[in-house]
Amino acid sequence: MSENLRQTLQEATERQHAAERGSRLVSLAAAIIAVLAALGALFTHHRAISALSAKNHAILLQARASDTYNRYEAGRVRAQVLEALIDAGSYRDEAARARMESIVEKERAVYARDFTKAQDLETESNVSESRSEEFLKSYELLEVATSTFDISIVLVSISALVRRAPFLTAGCILSAVGVVIVIAGYLRGQ
Question: Is the entire prediction scored with pTM above 0.85?
Answer without folding.
Answer: no
